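User: Can you recover a sequence for this backbone? Please restate the input before giving your answer.

Assistant: Of course. Working from this structure:
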């Protein structure tokens, strides 16, 4: 890919926060000039670039993901696209086809669930910077370009009915939805009011408070969280000791 536009350079150099930063809102809504997608519980935004003989899969920070998700990288390599940048997310799905982040974490150690690359946007194609086009135009191009196959799927969306989709994700225990304005352009690395995320799952900030039963590999950490006036214990989790903490 010889193009030297901002989008091409950002992909090559791995500029952090390349994806659009969505604003958070509390309540779902219905609106005819918006589309609504399911917020996937996966790796976070990932980009795939296709050029002759050299397809690549990148994280939001420009780090290569081929070794981390070989099945997805293999599926992407079979797409018959050239000089194209797709925007999507790597997920692992349960027996009901619902993305689960815990399954994605486990699959990196011992593959036990299907990993997929869900594509929801196209940013570049054959010399054209598509980020300046409206979402509905980019989506139309994407649907003409992408032929879903094993390991690569086109993310679905609904028009207008954000509340119904939100309620469905809440019922299924999913993360929430993303709302995108139909005429919104793609603004790399910028927070945009044209993209909104609405979470259906309650979340809590936790702190690693103490280490129990230290071992070479797995360790048990005590978790703490804020109550109204003080920090209290909120359970435990098993994880590897970060390298910096091993030196402490």
């Amino acid at each position: 890919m010889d193009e030297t536009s901002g989008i091409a350079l950002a992909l090559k150099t791995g500029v952090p926060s390349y994806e659009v930063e969505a604003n958070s809102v509390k309540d779902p809504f219905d609106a005819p000039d918006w589309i609504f997608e399911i917020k996937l519980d996966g790796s976070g935004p990932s980009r795939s670039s296709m050029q002759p003989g050299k397809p690549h899969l990148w994280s939001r920070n420009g780090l290569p993901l081929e070794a981390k998700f070989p099945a997805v990288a293999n599926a992407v390599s079979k797409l018959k696209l050239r000089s194209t940048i797709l925007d999507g997310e790597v997920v692992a799905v349960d027996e009901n086809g619902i993305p689960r982040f815990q399954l994605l974490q486990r699959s990196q150690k011992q593959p036990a669930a299907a990993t997929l690359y869900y594509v929801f946007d196209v940013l570049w194609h054959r010399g054209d910077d598509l980020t300046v086009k409206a979402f509905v135009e980019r989506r139309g191009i994407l649907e003409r370009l992408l032929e879903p196959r094993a390991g690569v799927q086109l993310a679905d969306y609904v028009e207008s009915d954000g509340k119904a989709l939100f309620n469905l994700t809440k019922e299924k225990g999913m993360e929430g939805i993303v709302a995108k304005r139909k005429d919104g352009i793609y603004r790399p690395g910028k927070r945009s009011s044209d993209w909104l995320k609405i979470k259906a799952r309650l979340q809590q900030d936790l702190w690693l408070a103490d280490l129990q039963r230290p071992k070479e590999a797995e360790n048990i950490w005590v978790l703490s969280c804020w109550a109204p006036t003080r920090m209290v214990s909120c359970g435990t989790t098993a994880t590897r000791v970060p390298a910096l903490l091993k030196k402490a």
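That completes the design. The chain has two domains: 6-199, 207-247.
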